Amino acid sequence: MTRLFHISDLHFGLEDQAALAWFADCVRHEGPDAVLITGDLTMRARSREFAAACDWIGALDVPVTVEVGNHDLPYFNPVERFFFPYRRIRGIERLVERELDLPGVAVVPLKTTARAQWRLDWSKGWVTDKALEKTLAAIETLPRGTTVLVTAHHPLVEAGTKGRALTRGGERALAALAKRGVAAVLTGHVHDAFDLKKTTAAGPIRMIGAGTLSRRIRSTPPSFNDLTVEGASIDVRVRNLEHVPTCDMQIGDVPPDALPPREPGEPVAPVAAVPPVDPPVH
Predict the structure, then answer these.
(1) What is the mean pLDDT of the chain?
(2) CB 108 within 8 A of CB 66
(3) Contacts of 230 (CB under 8 A, 6+ apart)
(4) In whole angstroms, what is the distance from residue 251 CA to residue 104 CA?
(5) How far apart (Å, rounded) are the C-alpha atoms in residues 139 and 146?
(6) Residue of 129 and 165 predicted with greater confidence
(7) Domain coordinates in residue numbering, the chain
(8) Is the pLDDT of residue 163 over 50?
(9) Is 2-249 assigned to CATH 3.30.420.10?
(10) Lowest-confidence segment of 87-91, 107-111, 152-156, 269-273 by average pLDDT
(11) What is the Cα–Cα distance from 150 to 221, expressed in whole angstroms?
């Protein structure tokens, strides 16, 4: 049995200190086999935000892998964004896009962030040919029978987002991962947890999303996913300080972004902890 803690969207700068302290305490006392962080460590990729995030992550005394989110690329310095995008994350550089090999389980990263795209909204995901090839090559080197989990920041969803592709190349990536027997794709970005099965041309694949440990909540209180992997079986428990059951913490579809749902038909978790006012973005 392998136990993994999956967290996302810490958003240092608008972090939830109580949630972060609680999670660190869970790690310290329960000792998971690894912590998987699927992006958005900061709010605006400021140096002080990265310094705080790196200090907090560095204190987790277990193996950690980190994906970079759209909020982790410099916003206000185009030179850094295009030429030195990870300069401010040097404190944990060895953990970024790190593959984890655990007994019977492998965690393989897939990059979905982009320095620039051929569309105005650069916050959305993009699975490039190069990124997908790198992930598939890593999977193909694994021993037969390994349970493979792929970590990315953006959910690999293109349809069902009101015409705005959340992640370009996501459908193609899901099919390629399903073809190679990937057990699940673990992501963040939308600030609510989910556990969905996606049908692809190569067969079904599971998509598991983590909520947020920040003050930028969407429709659920701050949370993390507690995963138990036994062979091909993955049990997901969404843990939160308010002790809301997992079934009430998960949304039934992937929204286009992390903004609180305000329109009819937008996915809302049963707990319906929608903030009355949109959380700040700065």
Answers:
(1) 89
(2) no
(3) 1, 2
(4) 30
(5) 9
(6) 129
(7) 2-249
(8) no
(9) no
(10) 87-91
(11) 25
